[in-house]
Design a protein that fits this description.
- The protein is of the alpha/beta class and 336 residues long.
- It has one domain: TIM Barrel.
- 36% of the residues lie in helices and 14% in strands.
- α4 links the parallel β2 and β3.
- Bound molecules: iron/sulfur cluster.
- Its cofactor is [4Fe-4S] cluster; [2Fe-2S] cluster.
- Pathway: Cofactor biosynthesis; biotin biosynthesis; biotin from 7,8-diaminononanoate: step 2/2.
- Homodimer.
- It catalyses: (4R,5S)-dethiobiotin + (sulfur carrier)-SH + 2 reduced [2Fe-2S]-[ferredoxin] + 2 S-adenosyl-L-methionine = (sulfur carrier)-H + biotin + 2 5'-deoxyadenosine + 2 L-methionine + 2 oxidized [2Fe-2S]-[ferredoxin].
Length: 336
């Protein structure tokens, strides 16, 4: 069995038989620098070579335990260190979660993602979320969890409970990680990603743009994701939602073309991954979202709320998908 150690690799440290192309940061920067239309066109070509461009994977995200997180991530309203006015919520009841999952499925979601605001789960938390995962899985939905840093054996327990995906984002360029997240480091993230892979779970791993980073730093984030070997099956690209009370509440506005470029570069460098247009969609006009789909985004978060911030209404999502002749990708449990 392959054992993954997903720490960031220099080119001369690559595994003997890498399954993915190694991307230097400067190569990713070259993609970012392409003329906009050429970049979108190239990404659209890569998209068509690997996917049905009309199929969109729909995930619904539910915060099952909200706020009061001891971590210090400058973008996050759930950190207990920031005064954002967010109401803390203890772990939701399993019945309530299952009810929400049923609704998500009835509305067309194929994957149900559950998030808990922890640095990482304790063994007793794993027991609780395992029961929840099994109950959601029994509805015929794909399951995804985002619970923070994992200790030995936890990923195996989650897999055993029926978890399909584990979400663990690399957030930003590894070189500026410590400027954004102050209570863990990039290697901690890579360590959990390795545990997730070794347990046979699929990886959902992306990042956030619009956090005052430079273009080379955006390229650094994409290179760090593309150089995960194997590449993540799912790559959420988030645009920062500036929440009052967080250190990034006044972050500079990222030009919309730069966001579309980020989607396109993610598509080109991770041709077989689902690239998800994630947080920040409420602020994106339909035409911008359309360009993102053209540039290779083929997954969205679907539902009223992301973890704690708003998401476009489902009706407007359906309307946009109808206008663009896009359809939801269905999930066949028997395939897994
Ligand atoms: S991003 Fe996650 S770990 Fe960081 S403060 Fe928010 S909930 Fe906690």
């Amino acid at each position: 069995m392959t054992t993954y150690n997903l720490r960031l690799k220099a080119k001369n440290e690559l595994t003997p038989h890498p399954t993915v192309q190694y991307w230097r940061k400067c190569q990713v920067e070259e993609l970012f620098a392409m003329p906009f239309m050429e970049l979108v066109f190239k990404a659209a070509q890569v998209h068509r070579e690997n996917f049905d461009p009309q199929a969109i994977q729909l995930s619904t995200l539910l915060s099952i335990k909200t706020g009061g997180c001891p971590e210090e991530c400058e973008y996050c309203p759930q950190s207990a260190r920031y005064d954002t006015g967010l109401e803390k919520q203890v772990m939701m009841d399993i019945e309530e979660i299952v009810e929400k999952a049923k609704i998500a499925k009835a509305r067309g979601a194929s994957r149900f993602c559950m998030g808990a605001a922890w640095r990482g789960p304790k063994p007793k938390d794993i027991k609780v979320v395992s029961n929840i995962i099994s109950a959601v899985k029994a509805l015929g939905l794909e399951t995804c969890g985002t619970f923070g840093l994992l200790e030995e054996g936890m990923a195996e327990d989650l897999k055993q409970a029926g978890l399909d995906y584990y979400n663990h984002n690399l957030d930003t360029d590894p070189e500026r990680y410590s400027k954004i997240v102050h209570t863990r480091n990039h290697d901690d993230r890579m360590d959990t990603l390795g545990k997730v892979r070794n347990a046979g779970l699929k990886v959902c791993c992306g990042g956030i743009v619009g956090m005052n980073e430079t273009r080379p730093e955006r390229a650094g984030l994409i290179a760090s994701l593309a150089n995960l070997d194997p590449q993540p099956e799912s790559v959420p690209i988030n645009q920062l939602i500036k929440v009052e009370g967080t250190p990034l509440e006044n972050a500079e506005v990222l030009d919309w073309t730069e966001f579309v470029r980020t989607i396109a570069v993610a598509r080109i460098t991770m041709p077989k991954s689902y690239v998800r247009l994630s947080a920040g969609r409420t602020a994106m006009p339909e035409a911008m979202q359309t360009l993102c789909f053209m540039a290779g985004a083929n997954s969205i978060f679907y539902g009223e709320k992301l973890l704690t911030t708003c998401n476009p209404e489902e009706d407007s999502d359906r309307l946009l998908m109808d206008k663009l002749d896009l359809y939801p990708l269905s999930y066949e449990p028997s395939e897994v």
